[in-house]
Amino acid sequence: MKRIILIAVLIFLLAAVMAVVGCSRKSHYQVFMEAVERTEALEKGKMSMDMVMEIGFNKEGLPEDALEFLKFFENLKLSLKDEFDKGKNESVKKIFLQSGELGIDAKIYTRGDVSYVITPLIPKILVIKGEELIHIGSGDINDLNIPSLSEESLEQLKNVWQSLYSQENVTALEDIVLDTPGGKVKAKKYRVKLTDQQLKPALKKSMEIISQDKGFMDSLEIMMESMDEEIIIRGILRQSIKLLDQATINSFDQLAYIDRDNYVIEETVNLDITLHFTEPGTPRQYKFNLIIERWDLNREPKIDFPEVTPENSITPGQLKEGFPDPVESMKGENR
C-alpha cells in the first residue's frame, strides 16, 4: 500500500509541475516568449483553469479495500476561476476539486493582506491575515495545513520549464477566431512539442526544487500525518525521481493562442505517460489535460466582497479550538 501511495504522490506532484508549465520576423520562439512574459505581468483581468488527471492502474488480484482506495486517484478534476486586480491587491478565486464521488468547493476573497475563505467544510467565514497565512503555509498551524510552494521555488520551476523552449520546438500555426468567455477574439495558434529526453531531466530537476522547499515539505508532511498516513514525504520524492526512469513519456503537447495585443489568451497542455509496472496496485497509464483561458484583460473586475461580522466569521486559532479538523470531517462524511 505504501508503494501505491508513493506513486500516487509522484503523480500529483507531476500534475503540480505541469500546472506551472502552463503559463516564440521576430522568430516564432521570440514572439511566443515575449507573449508569455507580457501575460505574466498582467495587472487586471479574469482567468479560468480546468485540469483533468486520469490514471489507469493494474488491478488484478487486489482486495476490495485497495480497489476502493485507488478510485480516489483514477479521475481527478480541478477547476479554478480567478478575477484579480493586482494594483488594488484584490481578487476572488472560485475553486472546485472533484475526485471520484468526493467534491470540494471554496471561494477565497483577498483584499490587501487579508483573505476570506467560504467553504461548506467550515461553518463560518474563515478570516486569514497575512502572518497567519505565512504560518499556515509553513506548517505552523496543525489543523490548517495548506501546502504551497514559495515564490522562489515557483520562479525556479518556471525557469526550468521555460529553458526547454527553443527555436526548434516552438512553431506558429494558423490564425484562428476563438470563442472566449469575453467574446470572439482573433488569435494566432502556437505549438510547443517536447520529447521524453527533454522532459525527464526537467521533471527530475523540478522534484529536487520541490524537495528543497522546507515550508512546503513540512506542511505536506503534517497534512499527511493528519490523514493517518505514515509516510516520509522527503523519502518519497527521492524514490519518485527513480520512478521516472521506469516511465515512457509518449507525448507532450502545448498549444498557446496569442491575441493581437500579444497576450496568451488560451493555452492547453496534454501529457501522456506509460508506466512500466506490473505489480498489482501500481499505475500503468497517466494522462493529464490542462486548459487555461484569459479574458477582460486590463479591465477592472467587479468583486463583491462578503459582509464579515464577528458573528459570521472565525479565525484560524478559533477554528482550531472550537471546531473539528476539516480533513477529519471530510473523511467521516465520505466513509
From TrEMBL:
The segment annotated Disordered runs over 306-335
Q: What is this protein called?
A: Lipoprotein
Native source organism of the sequence: Koleobacter methoxysyntrophicus
Q: Which domain of life is it from?
A: Bacteria
